[in-house]
Specification:
The chain is α/β, with parallel strands linked by helices and 139 residues long. Helix content is 24%, strand content 37%. A hairpin with a 5-residue loop joins strand 7 and strand 8.
Length: 139
Amino acid sequence: MSQGVGLVGLYVRDQEEARQFYVEKLGFRVHTDVRNGDYRWLTVQHPDQPSFQLGLFAPQSPVLDAATAQTLQAIVAKGAMPPLVLHVDNCRATCDQMRERGVEITQEPVERYGTVDAGFRDPSGNGWKVIENARESQW
């Protein structure tokens, strides 16, 4: 029987840069950071969600050939991947804290659909939505 999703992978251009961003700017914690030759398995967790890991993976061999890895890096850098979502209690306050830590907010907080949301990107170009927990669920 399935117990849910435990890890979602995200392609990043530089794993160390991504680790620093997710830990120092967003407040995630490193869960696993191991190497096998040039390959690095790096996962982080949100402190309030310890059963879920976000994998910060470099597109590289042995998983991908060089041409495919280069193509993926270009796609991610353009922001073409679907956004990830970070749920927060207060979107505006979270964006203010993120700005103080050096995160560039790409979409200022806006009220819509019964909540407030904003956007930012990680150093690799991956898009994120920051969505305030709705006071009354409309879903």
